[in-house]
Amino acid sequence: MTIPYLKMDGIAKSFPGVQALKNVSFEASKGEILALVGANGAGKSTLMNILGGNLEPNNGKIYINGEEVRISSPSDAAANGIAFVHQEMAMLPTMSIADTMYISSFPYKYGLIDYKTIYQRCRVVLKRLGCNFDPREKIRNISPGDQQMVEIGRALLHNPQIIIFDEPTSSLTSREKEHLFEVIRSLKQEGSVIIYISHFLDEVFSLCDRVMVLRNGETAGGGLVSEYTNSDIVKMMIGEKEIDTYYERSEHKAGEEIMNVKGVYRSGVISDISFSLKKGEVVGLWGQLGSGRTEVARALVGLDPIDGGTISIKVDDQMIPVKQSETKKYIGMITENRREEGLLLPMSVRNNMSLANLTNLTRKKPFSSVIDSKLENIETDKYVKRMDIKISSKNQRVETLSGGNQQKVIIGRWLQKNPPIYIMDEPTRGLDVGAKADIRRIISDLAEQGAGILVISSEIEEIMSVSDRYLVMKRGSIVAEFGSNATKEDLVATATGAASEKE
Amino acid sequence: MSTFNSGVTQLLSKKDSKESRDIYWTRYLPYIVLVVVFVAVSIFVPYFLTVSNLISVLLQTASLAILAIGQAAVLILGGIDLSMPGVMALGSIFGAIYMRSGGNPIIGAVVMLAVPALLGLINGISVSYFGMIPFVVTLAMQAVTIGAATMITNQISIPVPENFCNAILMKIGGIPLPIIIVLLLTLFLQFAVTKTYFGRWLYSTGTNIRTSRVSGIPTKKVVLAAYSFAGLMGGLAAIIMTSRLYAASPQMGKDAVAMDIIASAAVGGVSTMGGVGTAVNAVVGAIIITLISNVMNMANVSYYLTLVIKGIIIITFVAIDANSRKKSTK
């Protein structure tokens, strides 16, 4: 056993309203691959961003080779031999491989970029990764897998001793993945400390030596991978003794089918999405971040294009295929980003709430394009009251409201229009406990009144408290379906791929 | 009163928060500027405050006001139309050629409306369905139309029948028809943008096109309609301008006219960043710019200095607008 090369001790970090990390400590040695796993929001990325110099901790110390170091910027991290291979590749498609690798540190000679040296060093690094591209090749001409290699190459330029991989396989094919694993293993052989963040437990088992599990910003456990089974790790991720006090389950009675999705796909993003939604039921679409759940929601309402498949919706008591551009008429969509796609920030509560319903708020012919402001006010009042939105007046600008009230304005907008189907992507994200409970109650009420609702949430307790049925997504496909008797373990295990390996 | 405040702001509460009070005064700025300019001109220009002179100033403003109204629709949407002068000139020239070859003046007027409306439609399709950048599309359209207008006419004005011009310029109760047209058009549009759902769609699309799209608003059609409307307003301006000149001329479409149009909108309180402004704002801006142009003309200010001054006016008002936006959405 070698001495720990890296040690993070008592790291704590809080953001406004959230304690992201509470007293997390770990060690990692040279020549080993440490897996860092945890559910969405467990604190993995925060921890690694602290090590990578993107965030500063509120508390705690970092030691490298026994010496305490201060890392307050990415360049501090680089100076201490830490390299970060990011999940989302920050690529410049129109620039060359060499330019991309050197963009933050071009070497100069006689006041000009020294391309001779750059190309030479790029070739050396790329060769080490088993790649034979010409460094002058444009990024857009190489595959995502090769782009990932370039990203790793960029990290390796400065001979790092500690390399962090954040979800590196999310956009790779299985062959590219194998190649990546070989590269990571050879980096380990060369004596680097490797920290590997993943949503996929199968990867952890085939690649990593040790595992550390984070849950709610705390260390939930860890040790040699060989001493654990899939279900041990899943249990650590979700916690065994959590009691659902806030999350009273509510069952709804499902009626007839109102939406049927068949074989919807968009190449490289989502594949073969098929499911059915019934009146009065809440279906939870569960999956890890980046599993394609948001993309499915957006495709169903025509916000993102699709390459094929049919969406049928019950119109006038008949299931008919609806063009993708027309589905919006029947679906109330609540997007995950309220400020960017949900609200007209400088406008009034009233205008925001009537936005989807304007054509129904008009006067009688021949003034059928004139808005009946009395009717508009009545409707606004009705849903402000029903949703219990705290406002000083209907004229208040929505940007001055709290997040919870803003979200209720958006939901109220759709209630006013009253579509048969709702899709809610992260409807309670960033809200306080009270607002969360209110919104879950509204979802339940809607289902009782006969709406069909598809809910996406990163919080497993939340999705379990509202859903009657679950669709689990992984890598752009629906991989499993569960009824209301599903357990947390079922959902987490399927989404992380552990179950599919075992069964 | 409320209809005279600009689009979004009129929908705001009177005492919203501290921050909104900071941005409050900018909504009245155009009216303050109008009064200041008007008083200054009254003091320094002899015979300015006579009925006949005021009517002639308003007649002079009419075509610019109509162009500014068209521009306002596109600006509210978050776009820009730099092709209005060229589009107007080309419409005027086609109508004049038609009438010179013996065509009916009424159909001549329809041609003057239809050609610019069609060109506006092309702008609209390019921006909405092909996702092209409005600045580039309309700048290119300006080049195409002014180039075509100059080639077709060989830089020579085409006279139009006097009965056509006299009909357009006829006085009703002592007031020339173009002024009445602007007045009625402004009232109608003020009503349309503040009271109909089309108007709401225009503002919501200009405020946040993504939210509007998610909420089921046909944003592409809204964009298309706004650019087509701007073209149509170019056509209406063409009819009035042609009648006042008694001829169609490619000179009507020179690039500097676009500056006057944008300046009118900006000074009048139409935001170049979308979501804010009304027809009244555009007309108030057009009057201010016409007054300033007249004064500079009388003071023998060189053409080039005029350009400098107008450019500075645009930048100043856009800066004030940007600053108030920053405060409102922090």
Q: What keywords describe this structure?
A:
heterodimer, A: 503 residues, alpha/beta, Rossmann fold, 3 domains, six-stranded mixed β-sheet, 22 strands, disordered C terminus, B: 330 residues, mainly alpha, two-stranded antiparallel ribbon, two-stranded antiparallel sheet, 75% helix, 2% strand, disordered N terminus
What does this structure look like?
The complex is a heterodimer of chains A (503) and B (330). Chain A is an alpha/beta fold and 503 residues long. Chain A contains 17 helices and 22 strands. Chain A has helices at residues 44-51, 74-79, 97-102, 115-128, 144-156, 174-189, 201-207, 230-238, 293-300, 338-342, 349-354, 373-386, 403-417, 433-448, 460-466, 488-496, 498-502, and strands at 4-15, 18-29, 32-38, 59-64, 67-69, 82-85, 108-109, 112-113, 162-166, 193-197, 210-215, 218-224, 257-266, 270-278, 282-287, 308-315, 318-321, 331-334, 421-425, 452-456, 469-474, 477-482. A 6-stranded mixed β-sheet of chain A has the order 6-9-10-3-11-12, sandwiched between helices. A 6-stranded mixed β-sheet of chain A has the order 18-19-20-15-21-22, with helices on both faces. In chain A, strands 2-1-4-5 form a 4-stranded antiparallel β-sheet, covered by helices on one side. In chain A, strand 1 (4-15) and strand 2 (18-29) form a beta hairpin. By secondary structure, chain B is mostly helical. Chain B has one domain (2-328): ABC transporter involved in vitamin B12 uptake, BtuC. Chain B is built from 14 helices and 4 strands. Chain B has helices spanning 7-10, 18-44, 51-76, 84-100, 105-128, 134-153, 162-169, 177-195, 197-207, 209-214, 219-245, 255-268, 279-298, 303-328; strands at residues 158-159, 171-172, 175-176, 247-248. In chain B, strands 1-4 form a two-stranded antiparallel ribbon. Chain B starts with 6 loop residues before the first helix and ends with a helix. Residues 1-19 of chain B have low confidence and may be disordered. The interface between A and B is medium-sized, with 37 and 29 residues.
